Amino acid sequence: MAIIDNKKIEDIVSAISNLEYGSLVITVHDGEITQVETTEKKRYTIQGKKTKKISS
User: Fold this and answer.
1) Residues paired with residue 40 on neighbouring β-strands, in sequence order
2) Strand, helix or coil at 47?
3) Which of 15, 39, 16, 36 has the alpha carbon at shortest distance from 26?
């Protein structure tokens, strides 16, 4: 088992803390973390859009 240094743990925790919607990918090669990548999504509500009511 590889030793994970504190800098990598801090980077992962920071990425999670700053992410509201999205994903976090941790890349590992030969048992060692080599990359931390985030994909963030911004979500907006649609203003003024009305749904059509279907009469039966």
Assistant:
1) 22
2) coil
3) 36
Q: For the chain, give me the number of helices (H) and strands (E)?
A: 1, 2
Average pLDDT, integer, range 34-53 = 84
**What tokens does 40 get?**
């963030």
Q: Rounded to an integer, what distance in angstroms lies between the CA atom of residue 38 and that of residue 34?
A: 14
- pLDDT tens digits along 20-37: 999 999 999 998 999 999
d(CA 13, CA 33): 14
Report the C-alpha gap between 5 and 13 in whole angstroms.
13
Rounded-to-integer distance, Cα 43 and Cα 21, Å = 8
Phi, psi of 3, deg, nearest 5: -85, 130
Q: Would you say residue 50 has pLDDT above 90?
A: no
